[in-house]
Amino acid sequence: MSGIVLTSTLHDPEASLKVPLEKALSAIKENYREWVVAVTPDTSQEIVKVLEENGVEVVVQGEAKLSADLVEDNHLKALEGGLKKTEKGDQIQYIDGDRIIFGAAYFPEEVEKVTDLIKIEYQGADYISLTRSPEDVTDHHNSLILTEQSLTRVYRQALGAEIDPASTAHVFSPAAGQFILDHSAEREVMRYPHGKWSILAKEGNFKIDSLETEKILSFETPLQFREASTMDAFIDGSFTPDLAQELRTAYSEGKLPSAKVLREYFRHLAEADNQRAASEWQHRIALAEDWIDFLAKEIPQLDLAEQEIKKLESVISSERQQLEKIRETNLSERAREVKMR
What is the CA radius of gyration of the chain? Predict the structure, then answer.
């Protein structure tokens, strides 16, 4: 019987994900035929042990061979490992390790819903972008929302599909996955290669589909801040020591933090008048610009009509200007005054 081979990357030096991982395994085993995880060398042996004891194929990152960039190389090793596990009729799903652990631990019914749709309604699909619901996106910090709006508009125009390039979740046929693996090294290095993968699928003449998910792709809170030594340094303004402790306790007990804790965490990332918030904005803007620049260079390979190219170039120009406006504006004030376009 055909199924889905799940593949992920994971970096967890502090074993912060151990409790939710243990909670997630039953849903992952029930919905996926195999799970391949490419871990960084720094990932805790506690995590590796839990994975291996539960039949997960663990690929430990070594010397970069598939890309000059170690992060991209690890993503490609995950994809390569997933391809090796496929059987006739299988599909491959890539999703970041922390997101699938979070989703399967706390929303197993949503994982089941999505995998059932892939197996039944999308069986044999070449490439599926797993998208986040509008609510899952807008629950986050404005530095993420605003920059990903620009990124998404450009990619949707280029690919002619309602994809979510920054969701970091895809489903491939073995043929599409192999094409992406074979041709990634021919393109410019992309540290986070998800934007490259969807473009390569288009260039390989694979049909682009999309499937909206709920909750399972919403994870953004870094669990490494669960530890007091780093969490206390993160405290600022309304993100108080009590809220920090609640966040630590919730994750250590395998529970979801309250909406208030997450709201203040995201507010801190977007609105706090400090270096951490400023760095988060800079990171998000640079990421969006890098992906848009990569796409712009690939336009000749996309087999678009002249009018489609002109429209795409217009959208790219507009969104580059939008990102520059965000950069030039006082970022903390911008976050408070933003109006969703």
Answer: 20
Q: What is the pLDDT of residue 228?
A: 45
Rounded-to-integer distance, Cα 151 and Cα 165, Å:
8
CA distance 191 to 168: 13
Average pLDDT of the chain to the nearest whole number: 87
Q: What is the DSSP letter of 63?
A: S
One-letter identity of residue 302: L
**Is the pLDDT assigned to residue 339 strictly greater than 70?**
no
Whole-structure pTM value: 0.87
pLDDT tier at 309, thresholds 50, 70, 90? very high
The amino acid present at 38, given as its one-letter code, is A
The confidence score (pLDDT) of residue 337 equals: 46
DSSP lists the bridge partners of residue 239 as: 236
Please report how many Cα atoms fall inside a 13 Å half-sphere around the Cα of residue 320, on the Cβ side.
14
- Does the pLDDT at position 25 exceed 90? yes
Q: Two tokens at 9?
A: 């990357």
Q: What domains are defined for the chain?
A: 4-213 (3.90.550.10)
Is 6:29 a contact under the CB 8 Å cutoff?
Answer: no
In contact, 59 and 39? CB cutoff 8 Å: yes
Q: What is the pLDDT of residues 98-136, one digit of tens each?
A: 999 989 999 999 999 999 999 999 988 999 999 999 888
Question: What number is the average pLDDT over the span 22-40?
Answer: 96
Structure letter (DSSP) for residue 186: G
- The rounded distance, in Å, linking the Cα atoms of 65 and 61 is 10
Q: How far apart are CA 53 and CA 55, in angstroms?
A: 6
Instruction: For residue 252, give the amino acid letter.
Output: S
Structure token digits, residue 225:
């801040």
The whole-angstrom separation of Cα 229 and Cα 224 is 10
| CB-CB contact of 254 with 25 (8 Å) | no
Q: What is the DSSP string of 259-312?
A: HHHHHHHHHHHHH-SSHHHHHHHHHHHHHHHHHHHHHHHHGGGS---HHHHHHH
Tokens of 13: 């030096």
